[in-house]
Amino acid sequence: MESAIEFLTTLHWGAVFQIILIDILLGGDNAVVIALACRNLPQHQKMKGILWGTAGAIILRVILIAFAVTLLQVPFLKLIGGALLIWIGIKLVAPGDEDAHGNLEGGSTLFAAIKTIIIADLVMSFDNVIAIAGAANQADPDHQLGLVIFGLLVSIPLIVWGSTLVLKLIERYPLVVTAGGALLGWIAGGMMITDPVAVGQIGEPSSTLKYAVSAAGALLVVVWGMALNRRRKAPGAAH
């Protein structure tokens, strides 16, 4: 009990908020995958498919993120992870037209549906894993895995049961998506400037430098993403 209270009192709430926002923005596909995977199940098994499939996906993602958080201590990997996050943020601000779910088939048995949800989540969760690992990396190393689990436990129900509301909010206020892209760019900048290679070259970054690089990452994602959007919407642009 005391350890749980200590964990909550020392929790990096900024990182928790970032993890929840990242998982909602980048995890909207999860609700679609779950619905498609369970659509062929008998009515009395659909809720079981949703619950067990979601549980399996959460466990798998926690394992992947735990590895990612550890690997981010290796030289150059924060630089690579930061570059990937910038790319993911730009894709969020300026999404393509491809449909990632067109060929996803629903399972006819409970086991098949659960397997489909877990495999699809594994394939689709790369961006979530990198982004959440980057957000968790700001916290105390002793609390990073607990932080990830806490953030996922809060955000997954929002995705599964509140996806319609979230999607309507995003459709009504596109600025939410732009803010999410900026957040990914911010995390990317903070990751890259604290990579062991960067620290070896310039020393431990000051708070001012870290904020400046983080802000530059956020600005890069927003400007690049908006430029791509304008280019796609321009008359005569190829689709």
TrEMBL record:
Q: Which Pfam families match?
A: TerC (PF03741)
Cellular location of this protein?
Membrane
Key words of the record? Membrane, Transmembrane, Transmembrane helix
What membrane topology is annotated for this entry?
A: Multi-pass membrane protein
Q: Which Gene Ontology cellular-component terms appear in the entry?
A: membrane
Family membership, please give it: Belongs to the TerC family.
Stored PANTHER family = MEMBRANE BOUND PREDICTED REDOX MODULATOR, SLL1022 PROTEIN
Give the protein's recorded name.
Answer: TerC family protein
What is the organism field in this record? Zeimonas arvi
